[in-house]
Structures are given as C-alpha cells and as structure tokens.
Amino acid sequence: MFRHVIIGAAAVFGLASAAQATVEISTTGRGLFSNVRVVGQPLTLVGPIASVTGRTAPGYTLNGNAASLAASVGLGTVSGVTATLDLNSGAIATAASANGTTPLDTTSGSASSQLSNLAISLFTSNGGPVTSVLDLTASQVQSLTSVSKVGLATTLSGQSIFSGLDLSVLGAPVLSLGSNAQVAANFVVYNQNGLKVTLNQQFASNFDNTRVLITNAIGINFTNYLLDGRSLSGTITVGQSLTEFMSGEAVPEPASWAQMLAGFALAGAAARRRRMRKSRRIGA
User: Fold this and answer.
1) Could you check whether the bond before residue 173 is cis, i.e. omega within 30 degrees of 0?
2) List of E strands, the chain
3) Phi/psi of residue 7, each to 5°?
4) 3-class state of residue 183 by DSSP
5) DSSP readout, 146-167?
6) Is the dihedral of CA 162, 138, 203, 246 positive or negative?
7) Among 131, 127, 136, 130, which residue's Cα sits nearest to residue 166?
C-alpha cells in the first residue's frame, strides 16, 4: 500500500505543470584593450576603452563612447634599439542592450563596438629612422554579437565589418580590404614567429545552462615574439562584443506545489496507518 501511494505521489509530481524556465542575458561592448609587454618586465595595460555591460532583468539599453584614443607603450631599449607600440583611434562607440521586463519574457540581446580611423603600429628605432614591425590601419571596424530565444531554441551569432583596412608586417603588405568588407569567423591573416593577426575572431563556450559568444573585430596575439633582443607576449583586442545567455531550471507553478504537498501528505498518512495496523497485529 505504502509503495503504491508513493508512486501515486510521484505521478502527481510529474504531471504538475511547470512555469517557463527563467532566462538571464548579459551583453558587453568594449572598444580596445591591450596587455602587450616584454616578458619579464612590468605590464602596461591600455583600456578597456568605452566599456559598457548590462544584465537582465529588466531590459536595458546602454551606450559608451570615447572621442579618441592615443596611447604609446614603451617596450624598452635593448642594445640601443628602442621598441614602441602605438595605439590610436578616432571616435569609439559601444552599445549593449537586452529586452524583457522579467526573466520570463527576456528573449533577445545584442552588443556592438565600432572604431573609426584606427591605427596600430609597432616599430623600433636606434636613434635614426624607425623600422616598422607591424602596421594596421582602418577607416572603420565594427563587431556585432546577438542572442535570440524562440521557443526552446537559442541562437548566438557574431559578425565583423571592415572598411579601408590595410595590414603590413615587417614592411611587407599582407592584406587590404575595401568598404564594408566581411570575412569568415576566425580568419587568420598572418601567423608567423609568434605573431598572429585574426579578423572576426570568435570564441564560443557552452557550459551547463550558460552559453557565451565573444566576437573581436581584430585580435592580435604575441606569443614569445622575438624583437631585437626582447620577447613580446600579450594581446591587442579591437572592437569586442559579447553575449551571454543563462537559462534556469523550470520552476513549478504554485498550484503544482500544492498538488505535490498533498501527494506527500497522503503518502505520510498511509505510512502511519500501515504502522498502526502492524502494531495492533503484533499486540494481538
């Protein structure tokens, strides 16, 4: 009898309706940040510039901007040769948004980052003419990452757009793009000797109930890059947009909780009656 009632209570639990799963969305836009350094030397950070981030619920619309960027990172002098990293940009605009007034009606979000008149230059000098190591310029770069939920399906997507982009390494042209150009995700433009330049760089992760997509319009990575007696490591990230989607477990409705409690109460009562009958038989 007790076993049957427990099964019945479990059936009540399984048939009880559940509320829609809760949803939380977070979006972030960042203009530029850099942590390039000489290995073994103190770290000089640049940025993140015009960073904005938001998290539901409720929904939000956030904007960030910077009129310009002009940063120069000294990378030391070795045997009379000085290395310098210059990071420059015109107007920088970022945005982060998501809809929904409650977790149950949150279904979409997006983030973007746009820079104009970008100029990144790594060069050396021994007191005379400078030697160009890396030169990247663009009239405009932009990344956009979005998330949308339709029913049980959730989609995260990212893209990058470039106008007037030119890249040269060690004085040799590598790539030139026209207006409103797009490339495939993780398009590697240059990858030699510890220097890697990637356009439309994307990183995705999916862990438990959380999904994340990061889009960097430009990613420049130094991994023990040897430059005139020094080793460079670190990254330069340009135009980052990020979306994060978190889905909680379904929550039973209040009426369902009542059904469940009633079922467990019946099971408890049946167990008590069974113990009482058994005690009477033993006493007899």
Assistant:
1) no
2) 23-34, 37-38, 52-55, 60-66, 69-78, 81-89, 92-98, 108-125, 131-150, 153-163, 166-169, 172-176, 187-192, 195-207, 210-227, 230-247
3) -60, -40
4) coil
5) EEEEETTEEEEEEEEEEES-EE
6) negative
7) 136
Residues ≥6 apart with Cβ < 8 Å to 200: 143, 158, 159, 160, 182, 183, 184, 185, 186, 187, 215, 216, 217
Measured from the Cβ of residue 155, the count of other Cβ atoms closer than 10 Å reads 13
- pTM of this structure: 0.80
Among 71, 64, 59, 76, which residue's Cα sits nearest to residue 23? 59
User: What pLDDT is attached to residue 272?
Assistant: 60
Distances (CA, A) of 107 to 26, 100, 116, 156, 243: 12, 7, 31, 12, 12
185-204 residue pLDDT tens = 999 999 999 999 999 999 99
Token code pair at residue 18 = 């559940």
CB-based contacts of 120: which residues, under 8 Å, 6+ apart? 85, 86, 87, 88, 134, 135, 136, 137, 220, 236, 238
Asked whether the beta carbons of 52 and 64 are under 8 A apart, the reply is yes
Residue ranges in the chain modelled with pLDDT below 70: 1-20, 249-284
Sign for the CA dihedral angle at 245, 54, 108, 198 comes to negative
Asked if residue 222 lies in contact with residue 211, where contact means CB atoms within 8 angstroms, the answer is no
Closest CA to 185 of 144, 135, 233: 144
Contact of 62 with 55, CB cutoff 8 Å: no
CA dist list (Å): 192 to 5, 39, 75, 225, 281: 70, 18, 20, 9, 87
In sequence order, what are the residues at sequence separation of 6 or more whose Cβ sits closer than 8 angstroms to the Cβ of residue 284? Answer: none
Rounded CA gap, 263 and 12, in Å? 7
Contact indicator for 94, 113 with CB cutoff of 8 Å: yes
